[in-house]
Write a structure and sequence with these properties.
The complex is a heterodimer of chains A (273) and B (123). Chain A has 273 residues and is α/β, with parallel strands linked by helices. Chain A has helices at 5-19, 28-41, 47-56, 61-70, 82-98, 116-128, 146-154, 159-163, 168-174, 186-191, 223-236, and strands spanning 104-109, 136-143, 156-157, 175-178, 181-184, 192-196, 209-213, 237-244, 258-263, 266-271. Chain A is 44% helix and 20% strand. In chain A, β4 (175-178) and β5 (181-184) form a beta hairpin. In chain A, α1 (5-19) crosses α4 (61-70) and α2 crosses α4. Chain A is globular and about 60 Å long. Chain B is an alpha/beta fold and 123 residues long. Chain B is built from five helices and five strands. Chain B has helices at 10-22, 33-42, 60-68, 87-96, 108-117, and strands spanning 2-6, 26-30, 46-51, 77-82, 100-103. In chain B, α2 (33-42) packs parallel to α3. The termini of chain B are close together. The model of chain B has no long low-confidence stretch (mean pLDDT 94). Classes of the chains: A alpha/beta (273), B alpha/beta (123). Chain A binds chain B through residues 76, 78, 81, 159-160, 162-165, 167-169, 171-172, 175-177, and chain B through 85-87, 90-91, 93-94, 98-103, 105-107, 109-110, 113, 116-117.
């Protein structure tokens, strides 16, 4: 049975209010496919029952579960490759030179999902920047989803996940196999500071950052929310700091205070002037 | 660009060849390591070989060792595509000279992402 238009509207309004994720008409199939496993996990008979519970308990735990189920967690190690190449060859050497006096480096991976992006950064720093071993390196990995953050903290990945984007040399160097799962090294887990942050709500106090990775997230938001988030990131970037967006995302026509700057094989964004 | 797929399963060769042909590679096939070595000789400039581990005649690990013993093929990238999923085997393959390692089962995306890691141009 397909979702009624009133149930779809209720779910899309709730998800938009809680996470700013836009579910336009035509995405009924997405709501059904994402909420069906949740219905099963909660012992409910159908997606309609999930919506019924949402209506009955608008401040209940079911709200968080539905929002989590509707977030997209597609990710992989070293996703798109070019941003990591740019970090290694252009951005990090420059930031390290600039911060040599303070010996501090701060990076934020916003919406880090199951952790492949922040862990890719950790591996890159370990492999290519041994001089950072006596620096104060702070990598904050945040996500809206508690269950995703729990996953990041365990550092356990499936075979399919380590097959995706992870160079075999890094698999050998930073992982161990435990039954069917691949366990990332405890040293890398310790490098991450995990935070639960809903990008469209008020943010906790955050430090200023040299680099902000917010890739393939803004595409799910409306323009007003994108502008608001970009403005807040501008306020957190150190002078000369870099923001990385996904390949199909841009600040152009949204926040002209950012300048798009070529960094090797990809684009990054810096506060203009 | 020439690519060699070495696997004793015809179905697996068909799957891998299909993925590679669809993105414009010239694909050659072999059913074991020995036949793979013959193909390396017969086909000029093999840029990449995708190699299964367990095969009759000459297995994939022996194939990697044999290819890496020959200077002529130093530019050829070697990628194991195998059901062997223990860490020891990944280490052995890399030590022998494999450039990448894919554990079966895989998706098309896995192969594409590994090609990108190897810097294999899709043009």
């Amino acid at each position: 049975m397909s979702l009624s238009s009133s149930d779809f509207k209720y779910v899309s309004n709730l998800v938009r209010a809680q996470s700013a994720i836009v579910l336009e008409s035509g995405k009924e199939y997405l709501v059904e496919s994402r909420l069906a496993p949740l219905a099963k996990a909660e012992g409910l008979d159908s997606v309609e029952d999930v919506v019924r519970r949402l209506r009955r308990e608008p401040r209940g735990e079911i709200v968080d579960l539905v929002v989590e189920a509707m977030t997209t967690n597609e990710t992989l190690f070293f996703r798109d490759n070019h941003p990591f190449q740019s970090l290694r060859e252009e951005v990090l050497p420059r930031v390290i030179e600039r911060n040599a006096a303070t010996k501090s480096l701060s990076i934020w991976c916003a919406a880090s999902s199951s952790g492949q992006e922040p862990y890719s950064l950790c591996m890159l720093l370990r492999d290519h920047f041994p001089e950072l071993s006596n620096w104060n390196v702070r990598i904050i990995a945040s996500d809206i989803s508690k269950s995703m953050l729990r996953r990041v903290k365990t550092g356990s990945y499936s075979q399919l996940e380590v097959n995706r984007g992870l160079p075999a040399k890094m698999l050998v160097k930073y992982f161990s196999k435990d039954g069917a799962t691949w366990q990332i090294s405890p040293e890398l887990i310790k490098m991450l500071e995990l935070r639960e942050i809903n990008l469209c709500k008020s943010w906790p106090v955050l430090p200023s950052f040299d680099i902000v990775m917010i890739r393939n997230v803004l595409i799910y938001f409306d323009n007003e929310t994108k502008r608001e988030i970009m403005g807040k990131i501008r306020g957190l970037l150190k002078p000369g700091g870099f923001m990385f967006l996904g390949g199909s995302e841009t600040t152009i026509n949204l926040d002209d205070a950012f300048a798009r700057v070529r960094q090797g094989a990809t684009w990054a964004y810096q506060v203009a002037g | 660009m020439n690519v060699l797929v070495i696997d004793d399963s015809r179905a697996m060769r068909t799957i891998l060849s299909g993925i590679l042909k669809a993105i414009g590679f010239e694909v050659f096939e072999a059913a074991d390591g020995k036949e793979g070595l013959s193909q390396m000789e017969a086909v000029a400039d093999v840029a990449l070989a995708l190699v299964d581990w367990n095969m009759p005649e000459m297995n994939g690990f022996e194939f990697v060792q044999a290819v890496r013993a020959l200077d002529d093929y130093s530019a050829t990238k070697l990628m194991m595509v195998t059901t062997e999923t223990e860490m020891d085997q990944v280490v052995m393959a890399l030590d022998a000279g494999a450039d990448e390692y894919v554990m079966k089962p895989f998706t098309r995306d896995v192969i594409m992402e590994k090609l990108e890691l190897l810097g294999i141009s899709l043009d």
